[in-house]
Amino acid sequence: MNVGxxxxxxxxxxxxxxxxxxxxxxxxxxxCTGAQRxxxxxxxxxxxxxxxxxAIPEGYFGAVFARSGLAAKKGLRPANCVGVVDSxxxxxxxxxxxxxxxxxxxxxxGERIAQLVVMPCLSVSFIxxxxxxxxxxxxxxxxxxxxx
Length: 148
Prior knowledge:
This protein is mainly beta. Helices cover 5% and strands 35% of the residues.
């Protein structure tokens, strides 16, 4: 299934998201800051613009994930690990990139900085209850399911 998503270029040099292959789940987002390069100091985060805004359909959201190559080669990843672009958001898609290394890193204008995956979003209502149904797991928390 192919869903058309309207994209507005907010900056002349902005690039539309692209897929790396025909069956890719993620669409590459590109740095568009107006500067030739953006420096990111060790263990700090910098907000990088993409120069685009999207109209994601109601019932969906955009999940902004790391690009594995950028993380492996440069030690850069989204600072919040996974960003969320809500369907009613119409501003510029921004990516806070965090430098996990001990060295200053550089992001070039037009470089692929993250990937956008459009996913279904379930609308829910939370209902306060005094008790919840019983399960085999119960209140077992972190690491509990790996124990026997």
